[in-house]
User: What shape does this take?
Amino acid sequence: MGSYCRYCGRRCFVLRVLPAGHRCGELCAIAAHTWCLATCRDGAEHDRSRTGFDHKTAINPYTRRTGGDSA
Ligand SMILES: [Zn+2]
Assistant: This one.
């Protein structure tokens, strides 16, 4: 969360849980994983191509539901 987004230059990240089965590493096929996902358009596109999810399709850990722009 401490770094700036390389696409929009802001701290556009929100905390999201990627469900088991996402693509980002070996263990992630069996474990959910908390990531900071970008909310800007280009950042979300990057997240999508990298993990298969963006901030709208991953799970919001506060509401336990997918989607939304809120942190
Ligand atoms: Zn961004």
Q: What stands out?
A: The chain has a mean pLDDT of 86. Helices lie at 41-51. The pocket of zinc ion is lined by residues 5, 7-8, 10, 12, 38, 40, 43 (CB under 6 Å). Residues 13-66 form one domain.
